[in-house]
Design brief:
9 strands; single chain; three-stranded antiparallel sheet; alpha+beta; 4 helices; about 170 residues
Length: about 170
């Protein structure tokens, strides 16, 4: 078994045993037609069925890498259609900006959400692995890796809204 396959399969197994299958579910955002993304066990099987390429150097070169996380990319298997349901704030119309909400996401961090937008079709998905022993900067190996997130679509930088400034209106 090559290194990428081993680290990905070990990370998925570690995630299932330590965080539970629900951690892999996607209750909002990007999804995959043909897969019940709300079923973490089905997501785990789906992720394990793909061939993953380590693209950590690409993420680093783009300035997108978070801590020491490792990034993997796969082509979505035939019979499935990826739906990228994200946009940069700069891509949102002024009219739609008024409908952006700040909510606590599936994993507890703050995120921006906007309802009513059509997702983009994509054939690519990403899997981000981090050290469950010392997140986000611990060494990410087959013995320490767990799934941070997975999603269909573009490689994007994670956003931390915890310290974002909120202006009060008069």
């Amino acid at each position: 078994m090559n290194g990428s396959i081993s680290i990905v399969s070990n990370a998925i197994a570690r995630t299932l045993s330590t965080k539970g299958a629900d951690y892999l579910a996607r209750p909002a955002g990007s999804s995959v037609d043909g897969l019940d993304v709300s079923d973490g066990a089905a997501v785990a099987s789906f992720l394990l069925s793909h061939v993953w390429e380590d693209v950590t150097d690409e993420a680093s070169a783009m300035g997108l890498r978070f801590g020491s996380c490792r990034y993997f990319r796969a082509e979505i298997a035939e019979g499935y259609v990826g739906r990228e349901a994200i946009a940069l704030l700069s891509e949102i119309s002024d009219e739609d900006l008024a409908n952006v909400r700040v909510l606590r996401g599936h994993h507890g961090s703050l995120e921006l959400q906007l309802a009513g937008q059509a997702p983009r079709v994509t054939g690519i998905m990403y899997l981000i692995l981090g050290s469950y022993q010392a997140f986000p900067n611990g060494e990410v190996t087959s013995d320490t890796a767990g799934v941070v997130t997975w999603y269909p679509g573009r490689l994007k930088k994670p956003t931390d809204l915890t310290d974002a400034t909120v202006k009060f209106t008069r």
